[in-house]
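P.,

For your records, the input lines for the assembly:
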Amino acid sequence: MRQYLILLLLFTLVQSAVTDSPRRPNSNPPKGFVTTKGSKFVLDGKPFYFVGTNSYWVPLLTTKEDVESTFKQMKNAGVKVLRTWGFNAINGSELAAARNSDLTYYQVWNSTEWVLNDGPQGLQRLDNVIAMAGKYNIKIILTFTNNWVGYGGSELYVNWIGGAGSTHDVFYTHPKIIASYQRYVKTIVNRYKTSPNIFAWELMNEARCLGDLPGGPSCIPGSGTLYHWYNQQANFVRSLDPYHLITTGGEGHFYWKKPVGFWYNGQFISDYNFNGQAGEDFDRDLTLENIDFGTYHIYPQYWYPQLDTPGSNFTLKAWGIDWIKLHAKAAKRVGKPVILEEFGVTGLENKTDIYPAWVDSALSTGHGIMPWQFGALGLTENGGNRVIKYADALINGASPNDGHAFYENQTTVWNVFTNAAKVQDAKSK
Ligand SMILES: *[C@@H]1O[C@H](CO)[C@@H](O)[C@H](O)[C@H]1NC(C)=O
Ligand SMILES: *[C@@H]1O[C@H](CO)[C@@H](O)[C@H](O)[C@H]1NC(C)=O
Ligand SMILES: *[C@@H]1O[C@H](CO)[C@@H](O)[C@H](O)[C@H]1NC(C)=O
Ligand SMILES: *[C@@H]1O[C@H](CO)[C@@H](O)[C@H](O)[C@H]1NC(C)=O
Ligand SMILES: *[C@@H]1O[C@H](CO)[C@@H](O)[C@H](O)[C@H]1NC(C)=O
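Structure tokens returned:
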């Protein structure tokens, strides 16, 4: 009986080594690389609990001084992980203006293939960000593309390769789009794969079946479109880089068989966050071999406009706490770490009221906590004033504010995060 079991075990090991390759050599990463052990992150043999933050605009800064000042401010706030965009793409028609305004860009699209800019207004700016992160002991989550049009995401691939009339979801299935995306991923991964300053690679910001373009009929609940794409891309990244962690960058949408919804105007509204329509299946996606940890976001102000009205019994605070608990449970079932990767509410009063409760709840889960988004003060380029792109601007030395930025002069909110960082630090021993 025993021998039989051992044989069976050996057979299973051999078989899984064959069928599941490439598999991460989890046990022994180079010094300074973050890895995972069960549901924890580990850094150089110690558990790694952290408060991090988001700021996509750091690589858009034009001077090394401002980049350094931003990292210094983050370090002083106790930030250990920064998530930023590893993409900045433009159309050829925007090139002249981009050069004039000193806009950072890495890819230029003017045909069915993009052209790389690895010059001083291109990837050299990202090089500087990654290097500066190391100097301030902050690790970077680098995202390869965007679900949304901002800074040239997946929809440039769809526009240029898929052609007019393509739906958003062809991004996940069109072989030429996948090849083009992978060509970019390979460029970025190969550039930084030996760097301990990278915390993780992220496949896409907020992948959904629809984007700013509508979704098509094949990306529907149960189709597993995103699951298969995540699997294919995570395996691809793993084949390039055996050590760095890989994650989805998703919002944490569930695909539950049990219907979840609410009554509105006498109608039952099926809840987009739970019914799989967004494209993700948080529980299943997290089981993928090369998805090393999960991510989720919290934006109830935008997700529940029908319920979030004065006098209703819906509260942003309660909804967020519930969403945190659901992801903690899901993470526990799979036994991998999860991070609260983005969250935000508009208005200083709302932030002051809500963030302490959300952060407390997240601290009790042990997850990494990454508010959207960090605010830096005292930036000096162009005298502290510069329009970057869209509504993004530096104003009197303050970094861009999309309504969610919080700055050091907003002491109560600031201290919620600096105090949480101390709690996480104390547990990282
Ligand atoms: C880029 O060009 C495509 C057309 O090829 C257009 O649909 C899209 O809006 C343009 N994007 C930007 C950011 O200008
Ligand atoms: C983009 O392509 C058009 C048409 O081929 C061409 O006229 C234009 O000069 C190109 N722009 C850039 C920046 O390459
Ligand atoms: C809020 O009110 C609605 C009816 O308007 C009810 O169906 C729902 O259960 C209430 N939710 C809570 C959390 O009390
Ligand atoms: C605070 O939150 C409420 C509820 O979402 C919203 O109606 C209000 O506009 C927010 N305040 C600000 C200043 O954004
Ligand atoms: C803090 O700095 C920001 C950015 O400059 C500014 O908008 C805000 O008025 C300042 N003060 C407070 C209390 O928020």
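Two observations worth noting. Residues 301, 308, 316, 346-347, 350 surround 2-acetamido-2-deoxy-beta-D-glucopyranose (ligand 4) (CB under 6 Å). Residues 1-21 have pLDDT under 50 and may be disordered.

Regards
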